[in-house]
């Protein structure tokens, strides 16, 4: 099938919404399979950078490492689940971290440069933090990552300091809340919400054969 | 292979620990596959009835339906995840409910009658609550369920009122906490903890080929 026909086919189906936070280990894992899963079923992915801090507050939740007992478990499960998916993982020493600057760079790239560059930035940021411990909350480290990714570091810093991209991220957080997002990764497929890296199999079945529940 | 040889082989490997609460939808789903998964890999399952209220308190957690946003999601996901696993599901009107009486009957059967009867009781209780809405916290309903399961209803009620089985359940809760259990279903395989119905695939891989992580 010619490329144009494939694109036309894809555009007829709704995009798969993928909400993530740069400080979420399970978002990192999902970021490595979501494009392949969507492509197998002729779907586009709309990546949505957001801040878990905002959704946690609305849902009266805390990061999983903030709870006794659960903390020890998830620190083990982050790495195990990454290895289960065939991915490298190194638990960052400082975790979780504030990720608004990385997220603003994402929205700047997405809205005014190129969607593909935004996705590449998201994947690079998640990999940098969860495999090399690059502190995305540190301005110098974020500038260096931008340069590594072929971006102008000054332009990236200007973007994350710009009121326009601060507002754009705020809007993204509000949209996430309005759609019921309370954690990450969070997926919406044809209006159906799926929470967690461990919903991959359900998403695959939904994409392959539609709803499997009466709801 | 003669039955005795299979039993001998099984006993050489450690049992798979399966912690559940009678009021946990994901425990219900897991209760339907855990025996088949263990059997495929020559393992026994040690069923462990416990009270989520105790582990939630220790981990500073609440039931998932007690959080804004998350509540709406999980009420959808309970049923969807059951259907994904090929199981019937009907959300009980009263949810969650206190399940100490059902759990004490489990320990009475397990310790002084027969492990297989205890497992049958656990499966029957989970199915009754999550497919027929039988309120396990109601004495009359629990007596009726006991009768349906071929138990003496008076003996069952005597068991759940008996200080001995109250203490046995308390001990089970304390053991669960000591092993890091903070939710249900919770599995321990060769010392490795797995939380959630959605860890089935990881448990299968662990049983088939051992650790897949450096931890």
Automatic annotation (TrEMBL), chains A, B:
Residues crossing the lipid bilayer are: none
EC identifiers of the protein? 5.99.1.4
* Reactions catalysed: 2-hydroxychromene-2-carboxylate = (3E)-4-(2-hydroxyphenyl)-2-oxobut-3-enoate
Which keywords belong to this entry? Isomerase
**Entry superkingdom:** Bacteria
For this UniProt entry, the molecular function terms from Gene Ontology, in alphabetical order, are: isomerase activity
Group of enzyme by EC: isomerase
Outline the extent of the DSBA-like thioredoxin domain: 16-205
Q: Which family does it belong to?
A: Belongs to the GST superfamily. NadH family.
What is the official name of this protein in its record?
2-hydroxychromene-2-carboxylate isomerase
């Amino acid at each position: 099938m010619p490329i144009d026909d494939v694109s036309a086919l894809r555009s007829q189906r709704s995009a798969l919404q993928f909400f993530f936070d740069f400080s979420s280990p399970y978002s990192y894992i999902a970021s490595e399979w979501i494009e392949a899963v969507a492509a197998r079923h002729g779907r586009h992915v709309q990546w949505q950078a957001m801040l878990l801090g905002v959704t946690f507050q609305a849902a009266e939740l805390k990061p999983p490492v903030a709870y006794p007992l659960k903390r020890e478990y998830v620190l083990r499960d982050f790495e195990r689940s990454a290895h289960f998916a065939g991915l490298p993982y190194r638990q960052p020493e400082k975790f979780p971290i504030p990720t608004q600057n990385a997220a603003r760079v994402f929205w700047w790239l997405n809205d005014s440069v190129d969607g593909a560059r935004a996705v590449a930035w998201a994947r690079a940021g998640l990999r940098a933090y969860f495999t090399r411990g690059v502190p995305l909350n540190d301005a110098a480290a974020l500038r260096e990552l931008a340069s590594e990714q072929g971006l102008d570091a000054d332009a990236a810093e200007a973007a994350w300091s710009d009121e326009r991209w601060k507002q754009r991220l705020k809007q993204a957080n509000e949209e996430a809340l309005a759609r019921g997002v309370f954690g990450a990764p969070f997926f919406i497929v044809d209006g159906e919400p799926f929470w967690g890296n461990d919903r991959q199999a359900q998403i695959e079945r939904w994409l392959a054969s539609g709803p499997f529940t009466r709801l």
